[in-house]
Each structure stands twice: as C-alpha cells, then as structure tokens.
Amino acid sequence: MIKTLEWSSSTQYDTGTISSFDLDEHGHCIDVHVGGTKLYYRVGKINNDHKSIDFGKSTRYAGGTVTGIGLSKGGNFVEVHSSQDRLYSRVGKINFKRRAIEWRHGRQYDKYGSGSYCDVAVDKQDSCLEVHVDNSGLYYRVGKVNYTARTIAWVMESTLFSKGQYKNCSVALNEQGHCILTFSDKRNRLFYSVGKINNDSVKWGENNAYDEGNLTSIAIDEEGHCIETHVQNNRLYYCQGKLNNNNKSVNWSESIQYSENKKENYIFTNVALDSQGNCFQTHVIKGSPNNLYYRSTKIQATTNTLWQIGKEMSKSEVEHKRGVWTKLHNYTVGMDDNPIETPNLPYLISVPDVQNNIFSAESVKIYFTIDRDYEPDALMLFYGYFGEEENRIFLDGKLLFKDFGISSEIIRHNRIPFPIISAGEHILNITVVGKRKGYHIINYLNLKDFSQEPELSSNIGLYDVIMKCK
User: Fold this and answer.
1) What global pTM score does this model have?
2) CATH no. for residue 114?
C-alpha cells in the first residue's frame, strides 16, 4: 500500500504569482516564476538530507505572464512563456558554478495562436512536448531540441487536443516517451490523458476526470510513478498514481489535502520529481506581495533493483582504463567489490584496433542469477551508453535488443523489457557491430523487477470526489 506522503515544512524563497520548477537526479534545480509582468529565474542545488535548496540570486530574463520549464541532462533545459498573447521558447544551459544560465533570446513559436497558459516537458533523447491553452481550446506540439545551437525544430504545428475553455494545463514526459497531460476546465473539473510520443507525434488515450480543482501540475518518473498537485478552495491537494501503459490510464490514490495553514490563501502550485523519488513542490500564498515557497517529500519505491553495474555519468567523468583489447570479457554479477562506482568492465566494447592501450573487448558476457520465474515485461534492463554504430544485446543466445548509438559524446538511454524468463543462471552478451568507429562506452546497466505493482490507498471516481467535497 502506498503511504501518505510526509512533506517537509514550507520554506519561502522568493515572491511572485506563478512558478515552474524542475530538478535532475544530481540535485540540480531551476525555478522560473512571474513577478508582476516580468519573468525571473533561480538556479539551485538540492540537499535531500536536509530537504533544502541553496538557491542563487533571482535574475530577471524577460517579460511575461506565464512560464514553464523542463530540465534535461547536463543542465540543458527548455523554457516556454506567454507574453502579450504570444508564445516564446528559450533553450539554455545552467552554469552550475555561477548559479546562472547561458541562453539566447526567446523565439516566438506559435505565430498564429495566442497562449494564456503554457507548459513544457523534455526527455534525455532531446524530445520536448509543449502544451498550451488559448481562447479556443487546449493544444500540444512536439519538437527536437538542439542544445548546442540552442534551437528547437518543431516537428509538428500546434495541434488541437480538445476544443473548449480551459483554465490551465501541465505536462510530464519520461525517458520511454510516456507522457501525461493534466488540465482544468471552466467548471473546475480536473482531467488527465496518457499518451506516447511515436514518430514525432503523440498518440493520446481518452480524457479521464479524476478530481475537482484548478491549477494542476503533474510529474512522472521512469518507473511510471506520478504525483499531481492542485488547488481546491484555496487549499493544496496532491494525488499519487501509477501509470498503466497498456490501457493508457493512471491508477490514482485519493486526493489528500496537505496545506500547512488553513488560514492562508493558496493560489498556485507546481511539482517536480526525479528518478530517485525525490519530490519538490512550489506554491504561492496570496499576500502583499505574494510569497513563493517550496516543500519536499520522498515517493515510495515500488520496484526492486536486482542488480546494477555502473551509474549515469557524463563522458568526461567516465574513467579511461589502460589495458589491451580482448575478444571476450566475462563479468559475473555479485563478484565486484563496488559494481556501481568501480565496475570491472572494459572501458570500450569495440571492434579490433579502435584505440590502442585501452582496456576493451569485442564482446562482454554478463552472468547473473534470478531466484524465481518472471512473466514477460516483469523485468526491465536499463542500459545507457555512449558511442556510434550498432549495439546488440543477446539474452541466453537470443537477440534481445539492437540499437544505433547517437554519437560518442551523447549518452543513449534504453529501457529493454525481458521476455518470459525462468529461475536460474542466465547470460547477457553485449556486442558492437561497425567499422573503424565501432565502439561503445557502457555507462550503466540496471536490472529492475516491475512485477510488484503498488496498491493505492483508494481508487475513487470523479463523482465520489464531488460528493466528498460537498
């Protein structure tokens, strides 16, 4: 059973009316917010043990009335905002040492429509998903981000998701391309829809009502855990959920109020979630001026890591290992002293003669044991690597996965479902196919058990919620 979340006390960090916040798995975060008709940003470093954020200074960057932020790997991010009924985007990079941002001026990306509310989400494959509300309905569009050039190539025009009058919208996207859109209508009803980015478009499921309220915000992690926050009757509420990819739905918990002070007038909320379950929420309390606060909590894990080799790092952080090239390198799970920090794996999986004096192998066999039988898709292999050419993985001699690397400088993240598999010993064999540039650098391998789904505390419909609120 998923437990009620334990939130930290609120900490004021600025003043403003609307905020958007995102964080990464390394504890970096960025906040963008509205003050009057001006937009500001703050870069921070999270201390999860103390549930606190060490923010840099608040810096003005544009004029506008609504803003949204999506943070990707390496401090890269996409920002969108509405100004004078036009929508603008910016692509930038965080300078962690200076707690500052490097970016270009905003670019208008919707020249034919007017936006009154907007949001954006990004993944590590450089995709971005933007949503916005105008006077005619709710729209979305998909883009490809070039963080080097700091541009977005929109692969589709703004597409009508739903015609009607809506107050606000929020979108979340994970590394598998699964996305969740939440939005509120003029009658203060909250809806969600689950989608999947596929071939530069989105295939959405049905619209589902899940609560009453306004100013919704949604976040999702790589395992499909969701957290949603919203305002109802000037109070803060949250819902936890688990994504069901098969029927494009979310199994929601009961909506829980978590306002600290019932005398305060809460007028806005936003939420973000990282891959370790660390969750930060921002909210606005009405006053003179309006004050911005943050709180944090931890999402309960519902998956079991069977084993992990290596961890996600930038290419510059990966240790170059001196040695020679061999045809085959054998690795047994459980034999390393420190498999996450210093795994005994070759620096390169490569064809012969790619680099001299480097510990490398043409093939790496990983021996592991599981203690019970698993149904299809119950086990997932998370695999990140750098490199070019074709990468192949075999499970017990049968092809499990093949993929082409992006480049030697950009990490490729993959989530690979296992077929039905029985208890006992098994072998993963990783190889690379190519010519002189045929090499890959293993960043991490992580085998997770997804067979135990969480039991939510309640699964109630919209009309149950309405009756409860009355």
Assistant:
1) 0.75
2) 2.120.10.10
Residues 283 and 333 grouped into a single domain? no
The verdict on 350 and 329 lying in the same domain is: yes
- Looking at residue 69, its amino acid is I
CA distance 278 to 297: 6
Asked, for residue 466, whether it belongs to a domain, the answer is no
SS3 call for 462: helix
463 inside domain: no
- With a CB cutoff of 8 Å and minimum separation 6, the contacts of 199 are none
Please name the residue that has the structure tokens 């921070």: 44
Alpha-carbon distance of 231 to 167, in angstroms, equals 12
Contact of 161 with 204, CB cutoff 8 Å: yes
Phi, psi of 147 (to 5 degrees): -70, -25
398: amino acid identity, one letter:
K
Q: How far is CA 283 from CA 222, 226, 236, 266, in A?
A: 25, 18, 9, 7
pLDDT tens digits, 248-266: 999 998 999 999 888 899 9
Which has more pLDDT, 388 or 401? 401
Q: Which domain holds residue 414?
A: 304-449
Q: Rounded to the nearest 10 degrees, how much is the dihedral formed by the CA atoms of 402, 345, 28, 60?
A: -60
pLDDT of residue 459: 40
